[in-house]
Amino acid sequence: MTHSDSKSPDLDWSQVRETVKLLTLSAAQVDVIMQEGDSAVDTLTDSFTEIVESMQAMNQHLLALVDSNERELALTCCSKTQEKIQAAIVAFQFYDRMQQCLHHVTSNLRGLSNLVGSPEHLYNPDAWRELQGEIRSRFTMESEKVMFDAILQGKSVDEAIAAKTAFQEGESDNIELF
Q1: Rounded CA gap, 43 and 52, in Å?
Q2: For 19-61, how does the pLDDT look when each residue is reduced to its tens digit (9 = 90+)?
Q3: What is this structure's pTM?
Q4: What domain of life does the native source organism fall in (predicted)?
Q5: What integer best gives the mean pLDDT of the chain?
Q6: Distant-in-sequence, close-in-space partners of 6: CB < 8 Å, separation ≥ 6
Q7: Around 162, how many Cα atoms within 13 Å sit in the side-chain half-sphere?
Q8: Do the beta carbons of residue 116 and residue 122 sit within 8 Å?
Q9: What is the DSSP code string of 70-130?
Q10: 153 C-beta neighbours (distance < 10 Å), count
Q11: Is the separation of the CB atoms in 110 and 27 below 8 Å?
């Protein structure tokens, strides 16, 4: 049996089904871009591994040479390159954090889609609390929980982000690990 849709609505048309379709689309879009990003990051990781190995070899060859001004300049270049590589590794860590966050978003969208698409759960406050609990439990950083709690308290997106930022600033002496 085919359900009507927004292009050809009939008495069976449902805004809930339309919402579920859009939530599913959003989850699929995030999944696709994450897969594409994984491939690019794998290439970058392989390249950086080779660069690090080459830099270590060059550094060892340079150290074996007789002291000279050119040798010292080359060692300085190696040192600066190693610093840039370390900065790139930090950027990869950010990417990993972003990847984890996007994975949570797709899981949340799927959970919401399933809940909204289920007539027996849609109007059940316990089902909504359960989904909210599952979403909150996925957060690994306390600042994320602060933002989530602010949204559930009815605050706007800007207010929730401000609450998260304020929490992070208050915790600036502590490093928040994910």
Answers
A1: 14
A2: 888 888 888 888 888 888 888 888 888 888 888 888 889 888 8
A3: 0.68
A4: Bacteria
A5: 86
A6: 13, 18
A7: 5
A8: yes
A9: HHHHHHHHHHHHHHHHHHHHHHHHHHHHHHHHHHHHHHHHHHHHHHHT-HHHHT-HHHHHH
A10: 10
A11: yes
**In whole angstroms, what separates CA 50 from the centre of its chain?**
26
Distances (CA, A) of 81 to 34, 55, 59: 29, 8, 11
The one-letter amino acid at 41: V
Residues 25 and 12: their CA atoms lie apart, in Å, by 21
Return d(Cα 17, Cα 119) in angstroms, integer: 11
What span, in angstroms and rounded, lies between the C-alpha atoms of 165 and 148?
13
- Show the tokens assigned to 145: 């929980």
Backbone phi, psi, residue 66, to 5°: -65, 145
Domain ranges of the chain: 15-138
Gap between the Cα atoms of 96 and 38, Å rounded = 10
As a whole number of angstroms, the distance between CA 149 and CA 131 comes to 14
